[in-house]
Amino acid sequence: MGDLQQEYQLTLTSTDVHHTRMLGELCGRMVHQQTVINLRGRLGAGKTVFVSGLAKGLGIAEMTHSPTFTIVSEYAGGRLPLYHMDLYRLGESALRELDLFDEYFYGDGVCAVEWGDLIQTVLPTERLDVLFSDLLIEEEFVDSRRITLVAYGSEHVQVLREWMNLWPY
Asked: Which family does it belong to (predicted)?
């Protein structure tokens, strides 16, 4: 395990869906087995768009979608499997009763969790957090998003640094 005290954070701006998808794709090229990505932001903020790019970066040809009604969608065919969780529709007590997290968090693939804050107590301490927030310019919301990337643990800090070396914007 890496150094739990090590944390690295940076914030960037995504001006459109293409940038958000590209950010996910570059992440997919860098992540390793047992990477957990906690995606936070309001409905429609770009979490699922990011995951579609993540899948592409992993080499997964299948089109990803939000697994809102299935909880977890599994995608194979890339350099690593992708497990995409959407916990939005489940209550906290129902989530605690599910005994599936370790299987995905510590398995052979990458786990992207939308609304992971609902299971904060079971999320691995070493992970990547991706926070999507709206931009307000001159007191008006714009289509661009502020995306804050936070890596916890030395392995994830290294992934984030390598990932950002590829980011052209």
From this structure: Belongs to the TsaE family.
